[in-house]
Batch of 3 targets.
Target 1
Amino acid sequence: MSTSPLSVILEGSPYLLIPLAILAVAVGLWYYRRTNPALPVFLRTILTILRVSALLLSIFLIFHLSFSFVRKVQRLPELAIIIDNSASVSSSKDLITKAILNTKNLDQLGKSFGLRFFSFSDTLSEIQEKQLDSLAFDGSATDIHSALTNIGSVIDPSEGRILLLSDGAYNQGANPVRAPEKCPVPIYTVALGDSTPPQDLTVSRIEVNPVVYFKDEIPLTVEIQGFPDAMTAVSLEDEKGLVIARKTVDFRSGGMSKPVSFSFTPDSVGTRIYTLQLTPSEKESSIDNNTRHFSLKVLESRIKVLLVSSAPSPDLAFLKRILQKNDNIELTDLTEKTPGRFYRTSALPQPSNFDVIILLDYPASDSDRQFTGQLISAINSGTATVIFPRNSFDHRLLQPLQHLLPCVFSAKSPEIAVKLAPESDIPPLINFFPTNIAWESLPPVTARKGWLKFRSESTVLLRLDNGDTAIAYSHLAGSKIIALAVYDLWKLSLQDAEHSSGDSLITNFWQSAMRWLAIRQEEDLFLIRTDKTIYSAGENIQFQARLYDENYRLVEEAQLNLDIETPAGNIPLQFKLFSGGGYQASLRLFQTGNYRYQGLAVIGGDTLKTSGELMVESFNPEFIDPVMKPEVLRGIGAASGGNFYFFQDFGKFLDDNKSTPISEEVEHKVDFFPELWALLALIAVLSAEWIIRKRKGLL
């Protein structure tokens, strides 16, 4: 460690400080050259020193005089140790704590690095070294990509390194091999677990439409994962435990995974929960995953959608293609030819007879006022709507709906090419977009900057890459309305097969949006929802809450509490406000069963209550494929400039990663007189001078 010479720092010109200091000394000497009455020389000297000191302290306070020097110090580079805390590596708990992260190895690493510890399953959190022995290894999801991406923002990008301990078996988030693109440090991976699949039976996949229709025959496909020589039967049961259908699954003929198809007919509307039950096998290692549940939203009829457009356009053709290929949507499209006249129709339908109305660039300035009035009346009565403006849209004709719209309109600006980007705080209840979208590779779409200005109480679904809102919705007075600030969305489907995520993105959005819009619910002032009905044990459960006043405006200054009824007693939670315009709370439940929750909102002197139910099942997706994936971990290490090791070779990581301390210069600033002490000293000096003068009777 070395130190540089001192340098003087002051707030002001040194050419002014020096003359003022000389003047202060001169004034002190002149003031006490003689006194009345006359004083001995030593008293005049003391008074002179006190007066000069007071003047100099005042100058130091004004100029904030301080000294600066630079010290060269050494520090160790950071090593972030990230531990997979999911259930699939539970068998490796002792291996992690006793063989890899034992005291001897940590001491050796601590000589070369500053150690930080993190654990993750579906989320990442920092832990202390003393918490290593208490890791539960019970997470119900593994999101390696998010863990590496998030840690890249908290570790030193110039000298930091990452040590990832995982089996590489991810079941949530993007492909982790792409994580090094957003993680600017080398990643060293250590493979845990076993390459031999366990002898377990489980329903690994369920394929069924989550929104179906009453008395329709519903196709259901499930995938049963097993092991050699196993044989089981899978039963489909209703909410009363009655068996709807049963099929035998035989793994003795080979194969580790078998698809099984069922068909059944819902006998009532509403949310229905069904059970898939596997009979145990004698050689099965665990029966915890032999039961799966799934829920269906059963509607009375198909979604009736009215698509009204002011003129033919690429977006119209694109949107019709998406909606017409969905068997659950009954589409009626009207394209205006002249005011009041539409292509291919003589009699206009009644808008109030539809579940969803899509206004594609409609109404235009010359659109039929009578039909526009019928549309406005239906929307005011609660018909869900999508506002999709293009070039001819005249927002003035929708003025009667302004209190319901998530946006206001201003003067049009020139067209600009923009790219789409995900909204970071999108509520999971209305997450209409598929995962694993490569947003940066999407082609640009079109917008008019500043044309649509979204209200603060609207909920953002999608943004532009410049941060502006692309799509948002409002849910006021019983009306669901989605507004789009972009158009030419047909361009997203122009990618080739290798880059088809754009078509998947926009198709999934429209299909999901139609289902969400069509489900009419009574608009309560206080709402609490979860993103699904059935959770795995240990899965993170997100609760979303919204609170409205009597005018259906969002209330953001209230105390919201949640009470979960469990067999062990009630669990209290407190909601926190989040930027999407609502409240959020979360927890994990590990005991299986049905849970009831009750929400309480206190605003002023009013108290509102709401309640709901959810189910936690024993199924854990971590056990669907709990096999070491060395190819994933090897890819992460290679892409980041790090390396890959099997857990048996952890000693090689210790040998390969020796580092030397990093020298850096740290500037230190020391006040000549800290302001507080300088002020106290000034008061003391002036007090001492006054006391002497008072006692000697000086004028």
Target 2
Amino acid sequence: MLLAACSGNSATNRANNTAPAPPTPAVGSVTPGSPAPPVGTAGARSSATAGPAPPGATPAPQALSPSRVETVKLATEVLLDRYYKPLNSNDLLNAAWRGASGKAPPAAAQVTAPRLTGNRDADWSAFSAAYQQLYNRAGGAVSGTDLSFAAVQAMITSLHDDHTYFLSPQDNQARQAEDQGGGIVGIGVTLGQGPPWTIQDVVAGSPADQASVKVGDVITAVNGQDVASAGSSTLTNLLRGDEGTSLSVTLRKASGGTATVTLQRARIVPPALETRLLPGGIGYIALHEFADADARYAGGLNIAQTLDAALQSFEQGGVKGWVLDLRGNPGGSSQTLSEVAGRFQPTGDVLVSRDRNGVLTDEPVDGHLFSVQRPLAILINGGSASSSELLSEMMKEYGRAHLVGQHTAGAVNGGLVVELPDGAAFQYTVVEALSGKNHTPLDGAGVSPDDAVSGRGDSSDILSGGSDAQYQDAMQWVLSQAAKRPTLALQPAPAGSALPYAQVQSLLQPFAALASDVPADDASPQGYLILTHPNELAIGIAADTTSAAQYADTVRSRHWQGSYDQFFGPGEPQPFIITIDLYADPAGAHAAASTDDFSTGLKQVAAPAKLGDETVAYQGFGVADGSDQIVWRRGRIVFTVQFTADPGQESFAPALAVAQKLDQQAASLPQP
């Protein structure tokens, strides 16, 4: 699920264990407007599929009409069925009509607006008929793609929700690259949530950094075009462009006066986090975004592994305490949020989500407490949003960290991304995210620091040997605490029968899927996760189980030893999620395979084929609508293949085709 100005995952991704967290939007080189997405559940697939297909066959792509009315229908259905607040069809479709008619040429203005009453089916019939007339009257002056995008964007804008927004094909492509650490082409800044466009962060080494652009500077013009009151999409389109091209940016400097700088666009691949052991024994951690947990960075490590390596290096260097800098961090994946929190806090929830029916679901820390615990201060400011706010508030509520800086953005909810035809996408809010311990709503409220310190902090200055008033305050607090109590007596949550990371990887990797096992449209591998603590299985399962702690206890009782998760194809969640779970004995594997642990999101249905020693199948409903799972066991291994399509286009055929290949491979391998 995304918590970008928050992010994470939820919804049912697996029947037997838990839902692996789908990736969350990451912070790019330019991030104007609303924070990145938050917590979510099952999402929609990137392309419509014709349903039902014969067993073993992959559904053929459904042809789209020239008018692309299907794009508007998909967005309408997702919002009506899954948005975290109930919506009315007439409100949504009236907004869609305003967007479409505004995009059409004047010659089409004579088309009568549809009469909408609030009856969902009748409203769609009226809208689609009028929309088709509008497209026909336009006579080719506007494409069906552009007309549908205008309708969807207007519908989304009418909700006035920071976490629900439209992504053009260009922005969506950039988001996908960012999610996997591939970066985007831009100038290397993160901006606030609206005009005036104040710079919240500058990527070290980026074109903006090299031109001495600073945190607190305000962009007033791009290539001479006034952007003082421009919308986020307008500004983004002006700042982005082809790699190597130039642009001029006019700034109102935080230090006073104005300046115009010429920048050359470059591919920005900002590190998710940067660390330094600073004078005085301070282990400094600048976390720029909560990137997807399966995204890999230097040395093939994800964020959690990179953080572990840094903390270990600090110990070898004689660290006294830690400062975690979340200033300008707009959020990201809820799974990464749980992983970062789990390094510093042994137990507790990082967030509690509330769905459209008022159901509360908790999300725990991941269980991987670092072996030595030291005093921790966290730096925050107005650019700290979503997952940053949830982490800060959690650490404050549990008394684990001291917050220094300025009030945060107050942009905290959970969302999912739906891929649309023709390359676009949109994110929608699926749950309200509350603080983990006190269940405090943070969206619109934000988090207050323990020590309010004015000024504009910049992690790039600290990483290059400089400082600022906020860091100085945090450093002094950490050192004062370290003088009283150098280490804290915290004990990790029990891991049960789980095996070490390397052993789980070695045992299960031979059973993993290859890109050639997945249909060509979705064959791009998006990443993998190896899970080695029961808490990790309870991350991101909002709407699937009522108690994460109880579920983790159930996993321990089955003598679970570890999991290997794979993600294939674009979207949130990805079309194909493959999970391989290892248990100490066949009895534990049988208990997992034969039990519906997520009865609030999955219902058992007849299995389409017999695989391995036993086979079950599940179909998602509610927010998990569109997800089909095939679960089977071979000895002490349980396999799950999940296929997620657009609601109403579900089919077990794609999941079964992949499952049969994996089972055939597993049958030829010795049991671990």
Target 3
Amino acid sequence: MTFRDRIGAFFTGRAKAIFDRQSTSELVNTWSFSFDGEKNLGEMGQARNYLMNYPMLRVRSWQAYVESEIAQIVLNKQTTWVIGEGLKLRAEPATVVLEQEGVSGFNREPFNDEIEARFGLYSESKRADWNGRKNLNQLAAMAHKSAIIGGDVLVILRVVKGQVKIQLIDGQNISTPFNKLSENIKDGVECDENGRVVAYHVKTGNLDWKRITAVDKKSGMTMAYMVYGSELRIGSYRGMPLIGTVLETLKKLERYKEATVGAAEEVAKVAYQAVHTPASSGENPLQKSFAKAFSSDGSGYDDIPLTDNGKYLNDVVAATNNKSFINNPIGAEIKTLKNDNPLYFKDFYSVNIDLVCAAIGLPPEVAMSAYNSNFSASHAARGDWSHALNVTRNDFSSQFYQPIYNLYLHLAILTNKIQAPQYLTAMAKGNYDIVESYQKARWIGVSMPHIDPFKVVKAEREKLGEKGKDIPLTTVEAATEEVGGGDSDSNLEQFSEELGTAKSLGLISNEAASPLDAQDNAQ
């Protein structure tokens, strides 16, 4: 193949013959061409490289949320399950790493109890909100909802009198200033030469923007960051709405639903029609049965319709209310087009709802609260959703909660409210192994309940065999988290107090002996 042929094949996409001499000295005719995913020319249509129009995507997504009950149901259910009443902190400092880094005198359990209690109190207080309207958990739900609908939301952290204040900025307010179009700013996000985010530009007026620094230069703490609904690809600095790929489907479903319901309504308005043959007189067959709107006999009962012969309407069964009657001309007949849409409405609508739910990773059973499948199917759906729920929570907590907790912990250590040996020294020296060991935490929410907990526990117990029959499968804390029963430590303290009160009132007369006491008595 000549150079000219190669250029022609590159630009035209036509296959060119290449003769390749193999070991058998035979000439084998082969074809070589550029593969772009299309096997037959024209089958896949024009290839498109989508450039995200984030402002318009955001507008259309919020429009769908307002106009489409499907979008509102699935997105609200997503936030309800992922966030619920808020995710709870479970501090898990990496003690092994701390020991390897030479940190001595660290007691993990008091550290966990103290920081969890303080941060739990802070999470339920409105002092966390810059505007003083919501607590941290409510802000988390708002951030999650705004991110999955609008694509992204900016979180700004401020320190006011030693307290962490949180401000949420809708993504529509983040844009590139007109006078800085030539700088390294992409859709309102400013980056350095390495691609790190250094600032966000918030539009405050028609031609006014405010630059928000992402990282505090003095402390190195993250002070502004974005929470994303969905990130398209590497190099994207803005988020994409979670329902971006099904916006057109949702709109068509709305039009289909309105057309089907409207057609059914119009058909229901026409109750009867009179069809006259050419030999008929054309007289209205129900003329004698029509009720008069008002009485004319001076009886004073003008509000009760009368028939032509003076009887009240309730004595006549031939009249209908709020229905149309059509008296056709002689030889004419009105026929409606056959419309089977109502018959197939449920099937068509349900299938598309399933596709919308699948696009955002939410099982249709969970979205519609319809658990009608058998045990095996429901168990599989529950397991799939539990896994997706954990992944989604981990992603959101790392985006939203973790930077807030890092700053809160930093201030608590600075003010000596929390004891963390060598933390401040590690911060000054840039030893992030120690810093991140103290910051390590996980975030828990309400678990998806088991359909049949007894079957699950029995199956796990069988796996342990005879030797493991006495090994506990859970802890009080884990069991409390599983059923969403609050805080295990608080429950134990409250139960202890209630038990003592019951004893003092004589409500408990004979306590059951423990197995160890029974064993000692037997010996």
